[in-house]
Structure formats: C-alpha cells, structure tokens
Amino acid sequence: RWRLASTGFLRTNHLSFRITLCYELNSMKDVLIEKRKHVLWLQWLLVVAIAYLLYFGGLAETSSPLAILTLIILNAGLNIGLFFLPTKYFHRSIFDSILVVLNILMIALAIYLTGQATSDFYLFFFIILMMAAAGQNLKSFVLVVLITSGLYLLMVYRTGDFSFTSGFLLRIPFLFIVGLFFGYLVYAHRLRQERLEAESEFTADLFEFGKALAQAKDLPLLYSKIPKLINDIMMTDACELAIIEEGRMTYRRFENPPPQEAPVLDISKSIHETTYQSEEILISTALHQDPQFTEKEDFHLYPYQYYMGKSWKPAGGRAGLIAVYRHERGEWNAHDIKKFQFLTDQTVLGLQYVQVLKELEMQARTDGLTGLANYRYFFERIEEEFSQALSKKSLLSVMLMDIDHFKSINDTNGHDIGDEILRCLATALKTTTRHMDLPARRGGDEFIVLLPETDTEEVRGLSRKLIEQINSLDSDEVPSFSISLGCSTFPHDGTTISELLERADEALYFAKAQGRGCTWHYSEIPAKP
To 5 degrees, how large is the angle CA 17–CA 337–CA 138? Predict the structure, then answer.
C-alpha cells in the first residue's frame, strides 16, 4: 500500500509539472523565434535608413570624425551582437529597454551629425516616437505613421523647399521605418505581457487538468471529469468522451450534453466512425454538410458546425475518443489543434495510469491461484464491516473451512491436482455466496467467508449448500474431495474480531472431530462439562 501511495504521489507531481512545462516551453520557443526574426530585420532597416539619411542629408561641417566613428561602431556592434545573441534573451524585459536606448542614441547622434537638429523633420520624428510609446495596436499605429509622414511631406511641399534631389523623399521612409521599429518593440512588449497573463491562466488550467488525471483513483470518476476539463481549457461549446469496446460505444459522456440522451451503438453507426479509424486528429468545419457525419444514426444529437476529434487504441486496454464542438465561433487554428493533441495525449496517459493502478491494487488484494481475495484484504474488509455492525447493531457472520486430508491428496495426486482442487473450491464459493459477501483464501487449503448482515440460520444454510455443491462435484480432472466448515456470528459468539475468528476456528475443529465433511456453528457446540 505504501508503494502504491508513493507511486500516486510522484505521478501527481510529475504529470502536472510535465504538462505545464512542456506547453510553456513549446509556446515560448515559437514566440521568441518569431520576435528575434522581426527585430533583426527591423534593426537592419533602421541602420540602412540612418545611412541614407546621412548620405543624402549631408554631414554638418562641425561633425567630428570621432562622432562618425562612434556611430559606425554602434551600428555595426549592435547588429552583430543581436545576430549572435541567444534567442532566450529576446524574452527578457530589459532587452527591449536596452535596444530602445541604444537606437535612440544612434538616431540622436545621426541628428547631431547632420547639424539640423532644429528642423521640422525631427519634430515629426519625436511625434512618431511618442505615438509608438502610446500605441496599442500595431496595424493602427502603422496607419497613423503613414498619415503623419504624409502630412510632413505635404508641409515641406507647401513651404516651397521640396525638391527631388534634396533628400526629402528619403525622410518619409526614414520616419516610417523608425516608427515601425519602435512601434513594434512596444507592441511586442505589450503582447508578451498579455501572452504571459493568458499563459498563466492556461497553465493553471493545465495544472488542474494534470492533477485531476493523476489523483483520480477509478475510471468512472475520471470519465466524468475529463470532458468538463477539456471543454473549459479548449473554450469550446461542447466536449464528448466515448469508450469503445469491441467496436461498440459502451460509454458516452458529454460536457454541455446534447438535447437527447446519447445511445449506445456500434461505432460504425456513429459520426465518430472516421475518427475511430484514423490515427490522426479529424477536423470538420462543416459538420452539417459533410456526408460522413450527416448519414449516421446519432447525427441528430449534434447541433454544431465545427468538429475536432481524436481516438486512441491502446494494446490490451479500452479504446476511446475525445471530440470537441463549436457553433459559429470560427475555424480551428493551429494553436487549437496543438492544444487538443496535447490534452488528448495526456488523457490517454491518465487513463492508462488509473488502469494500471487498479490492476496493481487488484493484485495486491487478490490471491493469485484462486482469484479470491487474499487474507490481508479480507482483514481490511472485516474491520470495516465490524465497525458498521457495531454502529448499526447488525449481525455479522464468518464461515471458515478447509479441505479434508488435503496433504494426502497432494502427496497422492501431485500438487497440480491439489491446485486444481483449490480452484474448484474457489469457484464454488463464488457461485454460492452473495454479492455482498467476501470469500477469501486464508492460506494453504483454508478459506474464509465474510457474511455481513447474516444471522445464525442463514450462515448454516449457506454452509450446507456449499457442502452439497462440493459433494455433487463430478469432474474428470480432479478426484472427489470434501470440506469441513466452522461458523460464528457477531454479537452472540464474540464481541471482537479476534473472538469471532477464534470461535469460527473452534467450530471448524469440532466439525473435524465429528468425522469431517460437515459444518458446525459455534452456538451448536455442546458445552464442556
């Protein structure tokens, strides 16, 4: 039990952490690569714009060689440094701040070198910088920059100073490139903050998803949780989980259920047939126009337009599928597909984990030879039932038995025959006892049965029925054999578990003393003189 508990604890933390980490790393990696590419392109455009501006605008006579050299070194060093800078640094907030400061320094130095710092052109330049700092939407900002650059062109034209050879035409793309560069940095920074907030919320959802998968101890509970969790994370209108056994949908669970109860039917008659047959994600953006859906028996259950489903077929386990639906909220994008694939994969792992855990628990409480409960599990159950019998003041009986002369049978016929006899007795116990009873192998050839809410007469009748079934056994595989039984009932024969078991043991020994092949209840044993 400790090992199973430890496995569950480690699985909870490992699965939750892995879900969160994998998604964050993949998402952040894509964002950083995209930002690095854009920054490098814009940086080189800015350098080219500054170079053309200086070349056509001319250098002032007071420009010093040191200032020119400084500008060249800054330009070359910054661009080379950005090219070799690891992608991870583009994610940091200080990166944007340093880049803005260095580029403003270069542009200010270029303005100084032209000797035209008082020009109206630079007034427009600083207006664009202020708009970039206040911008919220990149497309709107680009449009405003274009309008501002046009106004500058119109103003210069109206003054009469405009000419095609004076370099004024190059000032327009310069203003646009500067605006685009600084506007993009501000936009990327704000987008990063929004993405971090969204990812933080999504990460919390993923953590809850992983936690629910890892902490679920039985499949029905997990089946009920998965559709709601996926529906919330995917932000879809509905989610469906289906379990498929031997080509038949034996279980269907909806989040935001359909108008009618989903029938249990063959997968070939369901809208999920193609999904089940495929190993990839199946997507439809026209559910009500697609013949592979409209001709199925359960099509009327789905008032949706967009469909995305994925199936799994594990070796030795139950097959299943998950499908999500939308009404008219847009087609599935690449992010939706990636997220759905991730959630489906984790669902399969979670279901497999619960199945393995159940198998381990079953092995831990089951006798390997007979398939009955082992004595350790029996003792756990008798403690539970005894506690209930005490609180409810109800009856509780125990039936103890063993096989007569079992050692001689083993010695004469071999241990294989002895094992077969043990299995025959176990089968008789399974067919004779009720669903609420617990037959178990105590050890060797001894068996014990826990009988909740069973009085003295009922346990006598059950023990006699079991003896009759064993005596009537006719098999060519095993020789005939007999059993002896001893029974006791709480509270008449004992007020503790140990007393109840001791009284059943005494009754069994009394039955053996009476010639074996019979049953005795402790209350029937004559009092000793």
Answer: 95
